[in-house]
Amino acid sequence: MSEQSFTDAEEVPDTVAIESKLPLNAIDIESQKDMESGRYHALRSLHKWFAARPTPAVRLAVLASVYPGEIDADELLRLMQIGPKELDSGLAEFVESKYSDEKGSGTIDDHYGYPNPNTQSPTKTEIANLQATLREAWGGDLPTILDPTAGRGIIPFEAIRYGLPAKANELNPVPSLILKAGLKYAPEVGSLDPDIWEWRDQIHETAKENIEPYFPTEEPDRQILNCALTYIIQCDSCQGEIPLVSKWWLNKDSDGGDAIKPRYEGGTVEYQHIRVENQDSSYDPEDAPLRGRDAECPHCGVVNEKGEIQEKIHDGDFEYSIYGVNFETKAGERGYRAGSEVDQKGLEKASKRIENDFDMLTFLSEPVDVSSRTNDPTSYGMDEWRDIFTPRQLVVQYEFLSAFEEYKSQILKRYESDKAQAILTVLTLAASRSMYYNTRLNQWHDLRGYGSHLFSDNNLSFKRMSVDNNLAAPRRGYQKHSEHVIDSYETLVSYVEDAESAELASLDAANLTSHWEAESVDAAIVDPPYYSSIMYAELSDVFYVLQKEYLSETYPELYSSGLTDKDNEAVANPYRFEDIADDEQSKDDLADEHYESKMEEIFAEVQELLSPGGVMTVMFTHREMDAWDTLTSALISAGFTITATHPIKTEMSDRVGVQGKASADSSIFLVARKENTQSTSRTLWEDVQDDIRQAARNQAEEILDSGYNISKTDTAIAAYGPTLQKYAEEYPVVNKKGEEIRPREALSQAREAVTGVLAERFLKTDGIEQIDSLSRWYILSWLIYENDTIPYDEARQLGVAANVDIDNIKRPTKIWGKSGKDIQLKSHTDRVQDIVMLKNDSADNPSSRKYPVDPTDTRFTYNIDTVHSAIHVYEREGARAAWQWLSDRNLKSDQEFEVTVTALLEVLPTESDMRETLVNLVSGETGDYLDINLNHIDMTKEGQTELGDHQ
């Protein structure tokens, strides 16, 4: 064991607030509020980027990482702008009580009685008092905050908002541009109003005039807003036209909605607009050619399979087809109509323009360089970034760029350099945001009547029904998007009018000491890349290639390369290693190795930049144990020791679009100190194993006892923090052979310990440890995850805790199946053979081949097999046969059967069919026979009262 050796107490606080107790519940509540639409940070509104943390969590990390000693909960929350100003004390309790109270009809702020903290900056007095406290604790100077992987920059922005010096680095040029706008120009240049509106309007008017011919309309008083777009392919059997539409809705509303009624005649398709509520029952807008990814020809009925369809799209054997149009009249009324020949003429005109305009030949012609991890669009023939646009979309983008270029020189002449660059930057972000809503990869959104944004699922998946916006029109056009961006910028300006700008860098975070001096920062707040969840560079290329067209001369240092840097990005992308993987190292192993190496390099740079005894707070949100193992190993190898951990809710619990849903809903804040001495002694794993389990157990019990609002799943994640802290204290840890024990083993012990705590707290059935390990794993899975779908890695780790290898039992038991990156727990309907067919000795009995459990057996390998068989018999043959089946196997006296049944009654969802049958099984005369004690279970489903009720 090594001793922690910090710098002189006169220069660095012995402890900081984040190393002590914090009002986590109140901050979690505020973080959840922050993630509601329209309430989040203005940097998120400025331009798309990925995985933003809620502002309250960020403020906590920034302030508590530098505030000396402990901080009173009221003082901290007041500084974070949480709670009513007139309340002197009890802020945390107030927030928690408001969270529990029934919400009224007003806004969230009305209910809580104070404004959105995001919109509230600290007062000058609050900043002065904070700075005085910090100067005294940090040797006379204000502590400098570093964010080495800043993304869009919420962490450093909040630092300068509180008057703290900040340094921010980001490898990727796309968020680097956001950093320039928010952390340089907002505090240095300030407001761009009214000048920027003048230039915005001139760009819009020029582009509008040039793209108007590409949006012809038969009605002179109507303007096209956006179009619902699909592809028409030819049927291989009859050569008829097949529109690749899965449903014909354009816009759903309370009355019914707008839809298209196709007419198929002579191998062609025509579109008719209808109001659904005016149609008879024979019309179904859900009845369309596309079924899954296959398409049934509406002319001859032959199914064209997905592989054939993909090949046609890839090879260009299709036609774009506009099947619906959203329009606006001169009176401002909006409506829908069917796509017609005039719309096709607009598309054709754009195609001819691209073919004949020499200047457009190389526009956005950079290659698409993405992996299958992000749904590679090249598999659909989109080999260059220009290909993700329809011809008309590409022309529209080019015309807006041309209009920007027309006024760019005037802007540069009229203003000083910084203000000119600020205007050009914000206008470019507006163009980039407009593009984000107008590609072939944007899904048509029939619940809203227009297209969705590009990264609704954080990938580049092909859309068979997409959108084509008229960017010169209202609703989803350039004016609306630029207004959103400019307003966001002006909001940022209002927050940092008196602040100093942050120091910015845009380079590999493993090379920060080439840009900043060693020991030049005091606290680092690190929100590391999401391991394997988001492929930032691959996704951001679509923005990069367009922004490069606008700003390559303005910022040559950002836009000098063809595409974004994927080699130095700290992500675990197995598909980047497909060509070099071999039998000794799989692509997953190589991806993990790359991520760990990059994070270790980054942490090492942070270590060198930190002042002696400096603080690093790492936010990490992930469920996969591999991610935690890798990150912790990198942190310790870089010379840090963990001094505190906190679970913080930083994600929406129902968010989508994270690969494999591998991210948890809570983050763990790992607080680490720069360790000045390295340990030379080694700790034996057997000596510390019980302590690590106890640390995890204590954390879980503390969370449950405190009433902290956190899911069972995240309780296990929260226990990772103290586990890793204990592991880091004892590092290096080895087994009796002298082999290194990695953090994964400690985390596995933590998972097992927490599972035990959760079972003790939430499972009232006694004797769960008596049943077989497979059945125990099945029950615990339902208990902790409360549904049948579980991330694979977590299911596997839970299996370790239950002493079962879920991979080994998958095939013989079919107790679970694969569902993407998840596993799906199987019920009796997926496992038990048909007892009626077995008794009749039916030769045509597919269940005997498909399913492993034979209900005619008298003894079963696993307790869950017995229970599943009993449920099957009850459902298939009725209560009387079930009574006989139970009696023949003497299950009344089977304690393990009783434990399995009662545990399942506790953990299965009330509405599930399996639980409903179990309720019936333990009721009536079958229940009288079993005589199971159910006093500890909430029986919310009524069972049978007589055997005849279920004959």
TrEMBL record:
Concerning SUPFAM superfamilies, the annotation shows: S-adenosyl-L-methionine-dependent methyltransferases
Q: Ranges for the DUF1156 domain?
A: 22-69
Query: Highest taxon of the source?
Result: Archaea
Where does the UniProt annotation place the signal sequence? none
A family per Pfam: DUF1156
GO BP terms: namely: methylation
From the Swiss-Prot or TrEMBL record, give the protein name: DUF1156 domain-containing protein
Q: What is the lineage of its organism?
A: Archaea, Methanobacteriati, Methanobacteriota, Stenosarchaea group, Halobacteria
